[in-house]
Design brief:
By secondary structure, the chain is an alpha+beta fold. It contains four helices and four strands, in the order E-H-E-E-H-H-E-H. It has a single domain, classed as Dimeric alpha+beta barrel (Alpha-Beta Plaits, 2-Layer Sandwich). The mean pLDDT is 96.
Length: 99
């Protein structure tokens, strides 16, 4: 199942200005695949809105608890507020419309 995770932080906690958090992001990016695998998750894509201090990460995961645990183990929940949305593709939503 697909999960879209929204990660929001304050400007003072931005990896672009906070050296400690920038270092965390660099470590996380080098271990992300392995950490996600330990939770049965696979990375599908990621997007950043720098001026909004907002990151989106799409994961394929067995359940929302696995996504939540992965966010904690990756360290993303340390400086972000994470919101997890179960999602389907637009094509799946259209196919499910009543005739």
């Amino acid at each position: 199942m697909l999960y879209l995770t929204s990660l929001k932080h304050s400007p003072d906690k931005c990896p672009g200005v906070a050296i400690e958090i920038r270092d965390r992001v660099m470590r996380m990016s080098s271990t992300m695949t392995e950490v996600l695998q330990t939770h049965g998750c696979t990375y599908q894509g990621g997007w950043v809105s720098k001026s909004a201090h907002l990151t989106f990460i799409m994961l394929d995961a067995p359940n929302a608890h696995a996504v939540d645990d992965a966010m904690v183990d990756l360290g993303l929940a340390v400086w972000n507020t994470a919101t997890i949305y179960p999602v389907i593709t637009l094509e799946e939503a259209v196919e499910g419309l009543p005739e």
